[in-house]
Structures are given as C-alpha cells and as structure tokens.
Amino acid sequence: MSVKFFSLRSGSSGNCYYFGNEREAFLVDMGVGPRILTRKLREAGLDMGKISFMLVTHDHIDHIKHLGGFAKRFQLPVYAPDRLHRSLDTHPCTRGCMSGCRYVIDEASFLDTGNIKVKAFRVPHDATVTYGYHIDFYGERITIITDAGDVTQEMLRYAAIAKHLVIESNYDLDMLMSGPYSPELKRRIISGHGHLSNEQTSYIIERICASEKSPAKNIFLCHISDNNNTPELAYKASQEALRRIGKESSVNLAALPRKTNSPIFEL
Hints:
Largest sheet: 7 strands, mixed
C-alpha cells in the first residue's frame, strides 16, 4: 500500500506535513490555516476525511500557529508527550482549544494504534521541549526531525532505521556568518539548541546511509532558511554526502519548498 507525502509548507513562515495511504492519513504540525490546509489537500487530490490524528513537534509559533483553530474545527486527536501538551495548554495559540483533542504519548514506549506505531524522541532545540518522531505507518518507517540544534545518538538511531527521512537542513554556515542577522541571533542558531546546518545534516546522512543494510529510500530536506541558505546549497551538501558513500543513485533526495507546497511524493 503506497504512502503519499505532501509538504504544505516548510520553514519559518510555517510548517505542516501530510502522510497518507488509501485508508488513513496523519499530519505533523499545523503552521498553516485550516482553510489553506483543506484547499491545498483538495487541489492535490488528497482526502481530508482520511486524516485520523496529528503529531506536534514543539511549541514554536511556525509549527503551532493554527493548531488551536484546527483542533476546534476538526476535533481530531492531537498527539504529543505530556510535557509538550502542558505547554500547549497555556500557549496563546492553543490555550482553551484542545479540549477533547489532547492525547498524550508516553515518551518511554511506542504509541500503537494497530496499523500505526509512533515513537517520540527528544531533540535539542530552544523550545519548551522538542520532539522528533519515528512512525511505522502500515509497515513504512518514517522519521521526522524538523528543528534540532545538534546531532544526538537518539536522532541517529531513529534516522538510521527509517526508509523515509524528513530532516532539517537549515543554514549554510558561511551565509549565516556573513549575513545580516545580529550576533545574538547567530549565536542562537549555532548554539547547539538552534538549527542544523547543511554540514551537520550531510554528516547525519553519511552516517546513517553508509551501511549496506541501510533501508533509506527517500530523504527530504526541510526547514531551509530563507535568509541563510538556499535549496540548492542544502541539496548539494547532502547529495555530496550520498556520493561519498556511493548512494547518490539509490536514495532519492529532495529539498522541500519553504513558502509553498511540494509536489506529492509517492513513498
């Protein structure tokens, strides 16, 4: 049963991802409005009615700006670990909106709905708390790491077992350091709790794909900075990593658009 992946937006202006097959679908983050969501899915030929739940990575506004409105309108389960849900309970974007939608994932174990298994794992980022997710969706293994300031062993572990990886490649170091951002903001980005550089992401890709047993089939570069990177630079760094280990022809690599939707990818 093929899985479709659709990025509605990816970057500081908003983040939202769709995964679905003929039976069921889920979303990751809600940085686009419900009307845009329904219109974009309809235009792409995707069925809003198949969405059964949502995952939330963290409480920064580009990931949850429209989560409250989505929860009120659609009343679908919103899954996240308890510490993140407690932040959403008081966040201006979601306060008073999550009643009936608040479903807690135990960090220590897999959420198992039968055909779908979800594991939350922490990643270093300067939100209240930030999570990556590893999802077994009808047998297709997907790992999502949208914002992370550094590389951790847990990130590598779940990226290495994924057939399909969505991972941040936020900035080019030379562009960032020579760019217009303040020294304070530059320090925040490279602090270890900011974002992943192209070089860090290419390191992850080289580490996880080098083994002959690597299941990697698709890698999608997300959250590419509008000011400190280009899709071309992000793609080039990761493609070079795949070339070094002889996987440039066996792993599909794509840089996701920042301010608009992607094409539909068949996984």
